[in-house]
Each structure stands twice: as C-alpha cells, then as structure tokens.
Queue: 4 jobs
Job 1
Amino acid sequence: MIEFCPESATAHIGCMRKRICLIHTDYPHWAEYSGYHQLIRYISSEQFLVEVQIVPMGDNHFPIANSKLRLYIRDLIRRYGTKAYDLNDLVAEMAAMRKWWSRGFDLLHYLDGEHSLQLLPFVLRSLSCLRARPPIVATFHQPGAKLDSLLNTKAVRLLDHVIVLSPEQISYFEQFLPADKISLMLHGIDVDHYTPGLQQKEKRRFKCITVGSWLRDYETVLGVAKTLHSYRDIEFHIVSPDLSKNDLPKNVYVYSNLDDNDLVKMYQDSHVLFMPFLDATANNALLEGIACGLPVVSSDLPAVKAYVPGQEAILVKDNNHDQLASALLELHQNRNRLAEMGIHARQRSLELSWQKIVPELESIYTGLLQ
C-alpha cells in the first residue's frame, strides 16, 4: 500500500500526520496474513501517513540490462556491506532517497535490516547540510550468530534506533549502539485469521505438526518420529519445501506449496506444534500455531521462551530426543493437559496480537519524532 498526501486545503489536517517511509523485503514464503510486514495494516492512520517501498528479492528491477555489469555492481556493493543485498535493494533505497528529496518524510524504517540497509543512511547523512535528516529505524530478524555475516555494521552505527525481536539480539547490537537506542518488540500475529478450529479433532490419530525450513532441526524431528514409530496413532506432519520425501519413517508426512487456508486447516486439525530449532529469534510458524490453539513442544532457547514462556509450552534443552519424545507421549496420553495447554496457547497469542504489539512501535516512532 502506498498512500500519498494530496495537495489541497481540505487535506491540510491529514497532512499534519507524520509521514513514515517503510522499506520491506517481499519474501516469497510469507503467507497472506503472516510475516512482519503485517504490522503495516495496524499502524494508526490518524497519527501516521505510511508509504511503503516493497523490495522483491533478486535483481530483476535493476535498470541496467548487461548481466556482467549487474553482477559487478552487486558484488561491489556486497563487498563492503550486507551479503544479502540485491540490486532490487539498491533500487528501493534510491527510490526512497528520491522520495525524501522531492517530498520529504519524517522517519525511515527498514523492516528487514539484514537485506536493504546499506547505502541510504550514508547518503542522508551526507545531504543533511541541505535538508534535515529523518530518524532511521531498522528491525533485525536473525540471531546474533548469523548477523556478523549479514550486516554492514557501519550503517548500523548510523541508525537512530534498532528494534530486535528476541532478547539475545540485544547484546549483539550493544556493540554498535547505546542501550537506549535498542528496543525489544516481540513479533505479532493476526489472531482473527489464525484461530482454533470449530470441529472436534479426530481422536484416533495424534498429529504433531512442524512448519518451515529456516533454522529448523529436522534431524531431531525425524529422530523423534523414529523413536515413536511403534505408536501407530502418532503422526508427524511436516510442511516444508526443503525436506525430501524420500526415505522417511512411515509415520512422517511431508507437504509443500500449501495455500494459506490449507495451512490454517492443518494447524486446526493438529494436536501439537512440534518445533525443534537450531537457533531462533521470532518465528511465524510458532505464532501461527499458538493462535490456532496448539500446545507447543520446542527447544529451550531464550527466543522461544520469550514467545511461549508459560503453560502453553514444553521446552527441552539441547533438543534431547528422549525428552522431546517423552513430552509428546505425555500430551498424547493426557488429553486434559493437552486441552489446558491449548487454551493457554490461544491466550498467549492474544497477548501477541498485532493490535497489542503495534502501539509499542508507534511509541518508538513518536519518541524519535519528538
């Protein structure tokens, strides 16, 4: 959505809203109602006039057709900054710069700092003698162990504020910015789209669902499935484009290319969200699952605990196969606890609804704009 403020006297009051420019990466795996960009729908239109610069992944929007020259420019830029930076990111940053120069905006927010944050902070600083530079905010999604290879840390130092999605990211960014410029703001979820199912779940089968690919510990998922193969009513349903369907245990089923509605139905038909991680910050599947009322069996990581800190989850250290299998068996055999955990999961998701989360973002914006 790109909204422009009309040049008219009747629009004067509307133009008093603060103009926010958002740059966000268009990830192809995001569902229609999931992903960090969903927060855009909930930003107050009374306080802020939001303009969005959407960045498709890749190089196809770059105006130079010569493939060798395109490759040279991309490699040159990546050599001095983020390794995930595409030529489409360069096009988006330059488009944002033209917006700032021609019409101005009051604040710039990179929704995906690992991708698009590169040149524009330096350009805006160099031109600040000609026009007041807007505050620059960036949100970062990856764990600290991944960020070293992804970020242009010189650009990070120019930021006015950093938003992180999990507690352990804070210490990483304290290398570059003072603590008062770093805010933990948890990821939100659309609790109106992701809801518990109305129909009673099939009692003959006990379905454990695992969703996604990035930083998932599928070796552990398959290991636990093998451990529990003798329980013929326990099934493992995996939604991932990257997992081979060959040589799987008989109690494992793999799906890919599901549409949004089919994925919601799979959550609603399942009994447990089974999500062992190699590492984590925020996770869409975790939020989608609890919003659908699923108890969680997952890894005891600081990020996971930040999102499911209570009775909605059983968290296991070091992804211990035996303990994870025991947790699933406990829920398989104790349906009362399963139901209670499901109620707590839905309640936790309501605390993480975008309606509850976005006011925190608006508070950050307001503080910077003052």
Note: Residues 9-188+354-369 form a domain with the Rossmann fold fold (CATH 3.40.50.2000).
Job 2
Amino acid sequence: MTPTSSPAISLWDTSQGERIRIYEAAPGKSRRAFLEQQLLAARPSASKTFYVSCNFDTGGPWAGVGRLFEQIIAAIRAEQPHLAELHAFELVHILPQLRHSLNVLNPTLTDLAPNEEKVRNYAADRAFRIVHGLIDMFDAWKARTDGDPWVIACDDFDQAGVVGNRFFRELIRRRGEKLKLFLVIGTAIGTGETIAASFRSHNVTTIEGVDLADDSVDVLNSTSALERARHLEIQIGDDRLEKQIHLSEMIELWSAANKMDKVIRWKYFGLSFFCNLGFYADALRYGNGLLEEAAKYLPEDDHLRWWIIIKT
C-alpha cells in the first residue's frame, strides 16, 4: 500500500456498515498524534473518544483493554456500582490495583492457594470468558447511560497480545452496531490487511497508508533507569500484586539499565504468572528466547532454567 497524506476523519456512513478504519504508518509519537487528531475531528458526532495503546511490551496481555477501562471505571462504579461488583472477577484481571477495593466473589481453591501450593493451571478458555464478561459489563453500562457513538483509537494494534486483540474484535462483533462503537486502528506498514481479515466479513474496513515520521525510539537514560528500577523493586518487594502491576515497567527499566539478569527474572515472573492464570499464548510472549537468555546470563541457575522449560 502506498502511503498517502490522509484528511481528518469524517463521520462514518453507518448505513454502509463501516465500523473500523485502519491506518498503516510508522510507529511512534507522530502516529499517536495523528490518531488523536482523528479522534478530535470525530467529537462533533461522537459523545466520547478514547486513545489506547495495545502494545504488549508496555502494557502486558491486557494492553489497550486496561487503559480503556481505566478511563470509564470511575463512572461505572458511580453510576452502576452493582456492575462493578458483579464483574469484579474480570476487572481485577485487567486492573489488578482494584483488588484493594473490589471483593471477588466465589474464588476457586487455585485462586486462594499460596503460590508455592498452586498445583494446577486454569482452563484455556478462562481468558476468553473474562473477555466476554467485560463486554457484557460494557454493554450493560453504556446501553443505559449513553446512546451516542463512541470512537476508540487502538494504536500499536499489530503489537497487541492475544486476549487484548480478542477483546476488541469481540467487542465490535458482538456490540459494535448496538452500542454505536467505532475503531480507529494504528498499525505498522504492511500489517493492515491481516488485521482487517481478523475482524471478519461482518465489518467493512477502510485501510489507508499515512506518511509519518518514524519516531518510535525513545531511549531511557541507563543511569536514571537503573536508579528508578532499584527504587521500584525495593518498593514492590515480594508482593505479587505489585509485581503484576509493575511488570512491564520493570522489564523496560532493567532493559534500559542493561541488567539482563534482572530482565530475565522479571520475564520469568510474567511467564509463570500468566501461565498459571491460563493466558498461555500471552505468557509465551514473556518466554520467547528466555531459556537461551538464561543460559547466557545466568548459567549457574539450573533451577530457573528448569522452570522455564516446564512453563514453556
């Protein structure tokens, strides 16, 4: 596809069934600014607009989904608090910090067992049941509070995790028409057709190339990254909830500080943690190349390498 300069977004012709626009462009700040311009132009016809990044590396398996619900959860809890309680199980997976204020009803023995006593993983479809529970809550809230169109800009969609990608596809499939939802997707050049195909034939998609600067590289200073990583690791301690919340940040900071032994151990936490939850495909994102890295940078730690083998 030949990149073109694209005009600002116009109101969708809903009679044609179009709910998705895909923009191929180099990743980075320029693409984010472009997508935000599209949202700004859509606001006269949309009551709400949202920008989210779906990049697994910066947001984990629920990248994009967590950020979307961060922007609406306060309103849900204020307007329909029973919905948040009813769907507490789903919410604490995408926003783990909510475990401090939401009570998850009927946890399983695997949920309650200490980490060293967990002896089984969850069913593979558990992650997708969470996806559909979130959509049910979203539907119940928006259908009662706002009948106007909403536009969600999903940047870095080619870098999304399995469950994050699945959420947006299922949201449009199940509730796109009813809730008047529209997606603006930012993705790498050459990936638009594949993403369009993943949404299937029930949606008409428009794919455009946009000529933007490649300004995705934003290198962290190694000294400041090291200082921040050490401080945050002390703050987190052995709290698994805090580890989950800060996992992506810790991997990024230790990577910038070039402390590969730390990167490996944090990636292993992600591999083990999400594998135990039943998010197997996303867990493997943390495990890709991890055994080789452990052999290179932590050759004396046979125990860690053995567990990486087990989990992958």
Note: The two ends are 37 Å apart (CA to CA).
Job 3
Amino acid sequence: MERAATLDVLDAMIEPSGAVVLFGDNHPDVPENSWHNSCRKIIENYSTGDVVREKLHSPEWLAHEAILLASPFAEMERISIIERRVTPIERFTDRALSFSSTSRQRLGAKAGNLIRELEELMAKFASNGHVSEVVESTALIAKRSRRSSGI
C-alpha cells in the first residue's frame, strides 16, 4: 500500500483525538531464540524473486516512523511486551505460509518443501512438538500532533 496516501485517507476518517496503531513483533537475541536466524534464512530462500519483499528490504525503504513524521500523525510512542511462549511446531509453518512472499499461492508445489525444511529445523529445538520462544510484541501509536489537531 502507499503509506503516505493511506495516512491522508485515515486523517479524513479518524476523529481528531484518534490514532493510528502499527503492530509488529520480533525475536530478541536470547538463547531460546537460537533457532530464529536459521528459520529466517529458510523463509528468505523461498522468498527469492518476490518484488514486494525485495522492496521492503531495500536500503531505499523508509521506516514507518519516517513516513509518520511526515504525516498528520507525527506524535508517536511505542509500547512493547516481551514474553516467553511455548509454540507448536505447526505454528512456525503457518507463520511462514502467512507471508505473501511464501504463501501457498505464490510457492505452489514448493510450499511442501518449505514446510518440510521448517519442520526439520524446528524439530531440533522442540520438546514434545513445541518450541520455546521469546517474542517482543510492539505497538507504535501515532497521534496527530497537538498543533495540527487543535488539542
């Protein structure tokens, strides 16, 4: 989506005291996440040639904060929660298949190979079919600046 244009549309739709919230997550560099880099590499291998993914990971891609700072929603705060989870191996393959660059639709017959590779990798870190992971979930809350909203 064109982020700046989307924020302009949201500016017209959202009440003056409203906000835009962007959600995300990451895996902190802790021993329980030792599987994460290998998992990411497998997904990247199957994402090769995806134009959208390449654009999102290019040096020219501006961070969301830069886009928000140039929008009516320039007042930001970030909230995060770090938690330990015990996740079934199947959820890792579900995650991989939820990305547009590695969806079943895009990969076709290769989706089965992706699933097998991820299951083999995660089995090395699993106990009773589950993997322990530490996840940081974030919310970037962007509000209109007090000057532009008249508050």
Note: The chain has a mean pLDDT of 94.
Job 4
Amino acid sequence: MDSGILYLWFAYPDDLLDEQAFARSLDLLSEDEREKLQRFKFEASRREYLAAHTLARTALSHCDPIPPEAWHFRTNSYGKPFLDPPSDLFFSLSRRRGLVACLVARGAEVGVDVESHERAGEVLEIAPRVFSVQERAQLSSMTGSDKLDRALSLWTLKEAYAKARGMGLSLPLQEFSFIHCPPRGMALEDNTSTDSGTGRWRFCTLDHVGHRIALMAEFQRQPHLEVRAMRPFQVPSLLPHDPQPVWFPQESA
C-alpha cells in the first residue's frame, strides 16, 4: 500500500567538479558501479552518472536507516533498476548535463524524467515518431512557445510513464497519450495496457533550474510531494523550493 508521499531529490553534476566531493561520492558506489563509471569517455558523463547513483543511494537511505553504500541493485529485462533483496521502496532516476533527479515512493511504482528547456525544439522535430495521433493533433493547433512547452511536457511525461511501467523505450510511445481535456486538465490513455488501469496513475510536471521534470506514481490519490537537494558538504540536505504541482487526473470535488 502506498504511503501517499513522494520524495523527489535533486543533485547537480557540476557540484562534483570539486575533487573532494567527487571522491566522497565515489566511496558510496559498488565495485560494479565504479567499473561502469570508468567506461564513460567524457568527464561530464562521469559526473552525471556518479551524481545519479550517489543520489539514489542517498534518497533511499533517507527513507530507510541503511547506509547509502549498503544498497544493492538488480535490473529487469528492460534495464529498470530495483532493490536487491526486494523492498517496498521503489525509485526512478533521470539525469541530464545540469540536473539529476531521483523519485522514491513506498509501495508504489514511480517514474521520473528530466529534460532541458533548451531541447524543446528538438523534441518537436521528432514528434511524428514519438507522439500519438491524438497528441500530434492537439499540438498541430498550437503555435510558438505554447507548442514548444506542450511538446516538452508530453515527452517528459511519456518517458516517466514508460519508466514507471518498467519497460522504458520498449513501450511503444505512439500507443499511449497524454490528452488535454478541459475542464479535467489532462488524462492518460493507454492502448498498450491490458488491464485498463490508467486510472491508478497520478502525474504532473514542474520546472527546476532550466529543466522540465515529469513525475509519475501509481497512487490512488493525489500524492504529497517532498523535495530535497543533495549538495556536497551541506547537512541536512536543503529544500531547494516548495513546488505545488497540479496533479492529474484531478480528483472530483
């Protein structure tokens, strides 16, 4: 049973330009994670990976009294990470050059995706390949910044949902839709789901440091969102802002 609380954590890869912060973070990784880190060709990619995996461990330890370095992970056939041994904690990661996000919940599947505002134009260019017929129809009636903003929100929501379903981009992106439908706001329609269970999902978008963040959670009611940041040499972690996102589908009055 979900607790009704979502924990959203942020980290900033450029914080790891500090050699001491990089070394402290590296100490938290498993041997396997360290080997993967070394495979990245570029230092920026290494910082993103290190920030993401350190963040996941820190966020999980905030929920359960286990040292960050003691967590163990496995992946499903689509590459989605889970805790090993299994736990009632579920988490999702997303990383970009300037921001990493980790979403954690107890007893509920979750998904998070992060995308830079600067990439909205690129997202719009690939719309025919990744958006559904219904999504493209609604986009076609829009212009300018509104169209770019909608495309960015759709892309992050679709990625977050695919992660929450545990299938990533193996889930056919054109087969499910986030449809704007006033006055309810937005609804999820999914032709890939065999259980007609789209109503069990709650989702929203918010913005932070030039990025659009989409959150997806398998909650029966509107979640309570707690937001924290992992910054080097700052204890406890700071709350960067107090977002009050609008969750969909909206609850009846």
Note: The domain at 109-218 is CATH 3.90.470.20 (Ribosomal Protein L22; Chain A).
